[in-house]
Amino acid sequence: MRILILEYACSVTLYLLVDVHKFSGRAMRQLFVFFALISLSALSMSASADQSAEVSIELSMQKKIGSVSITGLSDIFIEYQEGGANDFTNWYSSDLMEFCVRTHGTRFYMTVEGSNDVGRDFTMIGVGQAEPHKILYRVRAMRVLDVPVPQLLYDMPPGEAKSIAVSQDFVGSECDSGGNIGLELRMNKYNSDEHITNVAEALSGAGPHEFVDTLTLMLSPHF
Amino acid sequence: MKNIVAMISLGAALMSPAAIAQVSEGSADITMTMQKAQATTSISGLDDFALSYDENGVTGAVEDTFCLYSSTANFTFNLEGQNQNDSRFNLVATGLPAVRYLPIIEFINSDGSISSDRITSVSYLRGTDVTVDGSAYMTDETCTDFDNVQLGINVVGAADAFDAIDDNLEHIFSDTLTMTITPEL
Fold it and tell me: At A144, which CATH number?
């Protein structure tokens, strides 16, 4: 009897007892086959149990195009009647004209210009008057989002850009959830240009008297 | 071993010479199956990340839960990135500064909360082997009841790349993470 020791890759040692005295050629071939089986088994056991997985990460980066949109503008009316129900104060205000500004980022610049600006005042011109009177007025920008009552942002001097914060969460993409900014016009009873000292003086002759101006809003994104 | 000896003995008996002077031939087929218990591991449920970055920062799903399983209590974890600018993880786009990000991998408790046990933290360096004891979070290979790991992608260095963009085109920064776990027997 002899002892053959077979060692293989996975460090398993097999002791195989064989009687070699009577081994024929065929039996030896069988033993070689057995060797082959053992070797194959060793390779199989050395297979790794590692596990790998891949995940791709993509980051899309793009600067926003400098765009801003404004929707919901409408005409603004301010009314004065001498001795009327509202003639008890020096300042007369229009109703608030709400509109929607949508821009990238959280701020934008807004500039308001009139057709006949004078210093810090805007000017309405009398319609149908031989010598048209002028009535001065001012423009206020008001915040109307997330506040119980409109909140003054700025008195808007003609042509002066003001930076305004706006919540994009407040409005939908179509600004269909309401306005976020408002404009209010104010005129002082004691109005003065080179012709009149108060509004009443501008109301000579048969009325009603109409004074008009055209406001242009200019907005630009602010990042 | 007793069985083997018995089989061989039988073979030897067959091969023993007969009383007459004649060579006889016999054979013994011997087979043995030998196998150590194989450790099993699996990673499943990983989804790709598609993020966006603009003036307001990163948007998109920056976290993904998946299933990580090892039949052994301890395993070695390795996370490799494709872009090898340095030892950190980088998203790259041709001609632009790389965007650094931190892959944070955390275990998830059975109640869905994030565990304080982390596989990788902010200080993890790309390609580093770490030994993890995940026994408290392993259930089954497919995490039948809940995913047990969360991968979070934290973009931390996009400013340089963003400043370098001077057009209105979309730029894609990308990387491929390769996650490997090796059971510790």
Answer: 2.60.40
- A128 assigned to some structural domain: yes
CA distance B26 to B151: 63
Q: Are residues B20 and B87 part of one domain?
A: no
- Pair (A156, A113) in one structural domain: yes
**Cα separation, A155 vs A152, whole angstroms:** 8
Once rounded to an integer, what is the mean pLDDT over residues A148-176? 78
CB A154 within 8 A of CB A160: no
Residue A150's Cβ-side half-sphere holds a number of Cα atoms within 13 Å equal to 17
The pLDDT of residue B149 is: 95
Looking at the structure of chain B, the number of domains it has is: 2
Chain A residue numbers touching B15 (CB-CB < 8 A): 19, 22-24, 27
Which chain B residues are within 8 Å of A36, Cβ to Cβ?
A: none
> In angstroms, what separates the C-alpha of A162 from chain B's closest C-alpha?
21
Which residue in A14, A24, A58 is closest to B172 by CB distance? A58
Residue of A nearest to B178 (CA): A54
The sheet that has A107-113: what strands, in order across it?
A: A162-165, A107-113, A216-222
Q: What is the mean pLDDT of residues A70-99?
A: 81
